[in-house]
Amino acid sequence: MALKIAVVAHLRHPIAAPFMGGMEAHAWHLVRGLRARGHQVTLYAAGDSDPDFRIHPIIARHYDQDYPWHDFHGTDVLNAVLDDAFARCTEALDRGGHDVVHNNSLHRFPPRHAFATRMPMVTSLHVPPFDGLRRAVQDSAAPWSRFTVCSAQQAGLWWPAGAPESAEVVGNGIDLRLWPFAPTGDGSAVWAGRITPTKGTHLAAQAARIAGVPLTIFGTIEHRDYFEDMVRPHLGGDIRYGGHLEGRELAENLGRSSVMLFTPQWQEPFGLVAIEGMACGLPVASTRIGATPEVIGDCGSFAAPDDAAGLARALTRAMRIPRHAPRRRVERLFSLDRMLDRYEANYRQAIDAARDGIDARAS
Questions:
Q1: What is the pLDDT at residue 194?
Q2: What Rg, from alpha-carbon coordinates, does the chain have?
Q3: Pairing state between β 259-262 and 284-287
């Protein structure tokens, strides 16, 4: 049965290609995938998001334009902007007549509002817990106010004593048609993502240099000082920066390579770019942190987060993994259809619970 669905996004960046990171890509493909299944979807997001979507602008343009995250994160100024925006968003959701809300905002207001008003909602948690949202999640779990995390490792961080019945793990999924399998590589390595300290781009360059493997780095330079101080000194010769590419061009470049370097320095919740590379046939040399072992599995090799020499050894080991293995792992575990199936099941559980009047504390 087709549903009327509101997808609420976070506001730091537009939900539009080229994507600034995994959260933007996830929201964009979620809306696109739900529409393809016949649902009527409204995206509540920054007004400069993809105009192909039905958009309800929470703010006129993404906030990083006016309140750069690295300058305003955690400040009263930005918090006030976001609180005002999501207060208006919950009011709009009340008027929207949606069957269910899929909340990707990372703001505390939507789940609290869902709990209080019996609004059917599925909130996806894409980051490790932080205080304001953690309290809202703990207070808002109900049969109609459901939660998903993208890895079992993240579930343990959000609910150390055990997740409620209204929460489950739903791994991120990608459209495999957009990340075609390439049977051979050229012997080089690739790194892709946001260039910022938590992503460890410099470590990839160090490891490739030690291993003697050519490396191309792709992605938006989110943190300019980090790029200039920690990444640029490693560029030159076989280590180069290839810019920020759109999906098809990025997929082509991934497919030409023989291995992916994935180097998070934080409690990585999932690693969308890792499965994009794996879909193209790339084994992965990764830091062992957060959900990386859970997602990559036996299709990669691992090193400690601060060990460039160990990562160089992992790079050499990973290059010996047959390319069909990572592709098959993504097909089995991380397809867009699998993700959408699980989300749709959660939507219907939330809708049924709100309709049946189950007590808020039953979960």
A1: 92
A2: 20
A3: parallel
Q: How distant, in Å, are the alpha carbons of 2, 48, 163 from that of 147? A: 21, 27, 10
Question: Among all chains, which residue has been given the structure tokens 């957060």?
Answer: 290
Rounded to the nearest 5 percent, the helix, strand and coil shares of the chain are 45, 15, 35
Q: Where are the domains of the chain?
A: 4-173+335-356, 176-333
Q: Where does 176-333 sit in CATH, by number?
A: 3.40.50.2000
Nearest to 255 by CA among 184, 201, 324: 184
Examine the pLDDT at 363 and tell me if it is beyond 70.
no
Peptide bond into 110 cis (omega under 30): no
Q: Which amino acid is at 158?
A: W
Report the sign of the C-alpha dihedral through residues 54, 58, 59, 63, in that order: negative
pLDDT at 362 over 80: no
In CATH terms, 4-173+335-356 corresponds, of 3.40.50.2000, 3.40.1180.10, 1.10.540.10, 2.60.40.1120, to 3.40.50.2000
Calculate the CA 226 to chain-centre distance: 22
Determine whether 250 is exposed, middle or buried from the number of CB atoms within 10 Å of its CB (0-12, 13-18, 19+): buried
53-99, pLDDT tens digit by residue? 999 999 999 999 999 888 888 899 999 999 999 999 999 999 999 99
Cα separation, 361 vs 228, in Å, equals 51
Which residue, 302, 337, 14, is CA-closest to 171?
337
Distances (CA, A) of 357 to 111, 310, 343: 17, 55, 21
Q: Same fold for the domain at 4-173+335-356 and the one at 176-333? A: yes
For 352, the 3-state DSSP assignment is helix
In this structure, are strands 40-46 and 55-59 parallel, antiparallel, or unpaired? parallel
Type of residue found at 275: I
| Cβ contact 291:270 at 8 Å | yes
Task: Give all strands (DSSP E) within 91-208, no chain letters.
Answer: 100-103, 121-125, 145-149, 167-169, 189-192
User: In the structure encoding, which two tokens stand for residue 335, read together?
Assistant: 């397809």
* Dist. CA 207–CA 204, nearest whole Å: 5
Contacts of 38 (CB under 8 A, 6+ apart): 2
Residue 120 amino acid letter: P
Sign of CA dihedral 61, 67, 69, 72: negative
